From TrEMBL:
Gene Ontology MF: a single term: methyltransferase activity
The protein, known as: Class I SAM-dependent methyltransferase
TM regions (residue ranges): none
Keyword Zinc annotated: no
SUPFAM superfamilies cross-referenced by the UniProt entry: S-adenosyl-L-methionine-dependent methyltransferases
EC number: 2.1.1.-
Keywords associated with the record: Methyltransferase, Transferase
Organism: Mycolicibacterium arenosum
UniProt xrefs under Pfam families: LCM
KW Methyltransferase (keyword) present: yes
Broadest EC class assigned to this enzyme: transferase
Lineage: Bacteria, Bacillati, Actinomycetota, Actinomycetes, Mycobacteriales
GO biological process terms held by the UniProt record: methylation
Amino acid sequence: MSSPSAKKIDPVLSGVPETALMTLAVRASEARRTDGIILDPMAVTMVDAIDYDFSKFGFTKRQDMAVRALAFDRETRRYLVDHPAATVVALAEGLQTSFHRLDNSGVGHRFRWLSVDLPQMIALREQLLPPDERVSMCAQSALDYSWMDLVDDSNGVFITAEGLLMYLQPEEALGLIAACAQRFPGGRMMFDLPPAWFAKLISRGVRTSKRYRVPPMPFSMSPAQAADLVNTVPGVRGVHDIPMPEGRGRLWNTIGWAVQRLSLFDPVRPTVTLLEFG
């Protein structure tokens, strides 16, 4: 962790990229708890190294984004157990610390990592995170498909789009899924999306505090719509609706269990989807 005298880093982010700071703050807050559900010391180190007023986001002492991170960790780890030398491609990774958590999760140290994000975000990651010979950075939009040329998929590929697709236009999001399915047969892709009602609410402008407004989310998808990707996107051979891991507290877990398993909640719950490409 940075010493009190160390000069902190000004992130200089706005718009959608700034949401990476909110996600980081929530995850670090959870990691600091003695009963925290996520072990993420790198997130704590990063928050301590950044010169930013995280109170701008309002309430960050919550567990939802840590639970989401654990869902992505779990499915990525399952893939790496079967494909230990695979490449993980993290699209619009922001300030996620997934590589470091997975590298300490017992899956070995043969897998490689490609982080694809906008230049300002990659520059910030390079300032905040220690270099690793297995981690490569690609400073460009995920919608510039030339990043695919950098992927060694000979030992498998797992693509994550955590917190990305909702900020794209529908044709952009579906185009990205289709391009990945065509380019990486045998690989997998995981993404999350809000329910339609929430995306619509956000489009009207929702503030988490007096100083921060969540960016619009043009794209959403119900579980049924996600399941239909197997019929509408060439190359998608399987679609899995991924349940969220348990969080902290009986009430949280009871509600989560019901929302995930009772179909009447499908139109109003977020989706976490895993695609298999064939």
